[in-house]
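Consider a protein example.
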Amino acid sequence: MSTIDQSRLLQMRSSILNQNQALQRAAGGGAAGGAAGAGAAPDFGSAIASALQQVNTQQAKASDLSEAYERGDTHDIVSVMIERQKASLGFETTLQVRNKLLSAYRDIMNMPV
């Protein structure tokens, strides 16, 4: 076996750290701009929360329009059906994203350490 060259090891570490910093800057979350860059782009949690809020709003709108049609307040069945389809599509998309996230979580949890 050969001995570990300390200077070579430090060079590799430095190179990895430089690459990591470059990736963080490219992603907009550099070490110095981490707190300042947080307002520029939403994090994953707030993006998911915003998407869920939009889906919820669309479903409420479709429900309100359906109820208005059932009461006879509106006779525009086309707009009712379009809003219901939008709500259905948003729900299906949310369900698929949830399934993919759960699948990724299971894959990560089953990785050998």
In short: The two ends are 26 Å apart (CA to CA). Confidence is low (pLDDT under 50) at residues 30-38.
